[in-house]
Fold:
Amino acid sequence: MIFLLTLLLSQSSFGQEIHYTFEDLPCVDKHFNVALHLPLDRLGNANITQEEIDTLFIEANLFFEPICMSFGYCSIDTIENYSFDSLTVGRMQKSAEHFNRDHMINIFLASTVASPDPCHVGNFEGITSPETAFGFLAKGCDGGGLAHVFGHILGLYDTFEGFTVELVDGSNCATAGDRLCDTPADPYNFSPLVQWTSECKFINVSETDANGELYNPQVGNVMSGYRLCRKGFTRQQFLRMVEVYSSLDFEIW
Ligand SMILES: [Zn+2]
Structure:
């Protein structure tokens, strides 16, 4: 599988041609028992099948194999109050308050998640406290979306994070964007002006940074906003997740 992932990451759809080697990444040997929360709609329907949920986890797990991390749901908590099936920001907060199970990663699978990208809402570094490891995913998202949410909970920023605008030449990569230097500057900003093809090619090829350099983002990066194109993490993203997980002084089941 390591070979397969390396192959995926070196595809041109990843944007830049960067070849990662994962052989000497630390193996944390951790399986997370996820608490899954499934709100029903107004008519009492879940609108997702067990098979679809299984596929989500199988797909997401492929991304984490290089560091020997995996995720599986150990329970499905059905929420019969349909107001939790349409997650506004306020409802997300209430969901976590009412249903969160401590010492576990909690995933809420709702019909709608109020975000420009309903496949990316995870509590950043949520895993660093026993009560805050939670994320929200719309029922139509793929395993790349679930992996993205786990990435946030495990301490990864979006590749397009906008604290300071990252330069294409990488000169401010440690303090700008996602603060990692093997993920190139990414102009994605939820704007409809940033576009990509169904074959996962970046379209805005004439867009430049403050130095006038053309952007060439990793469209296939799991932490990017190019939905349905998410294909892998970079080496530094893996190391960051391992660092965050390894620093915990309490158990996450
Ligand atoms: Zn995100």
About this structure: Residues 158 and 223 are 5 Å apart (CA to CA).
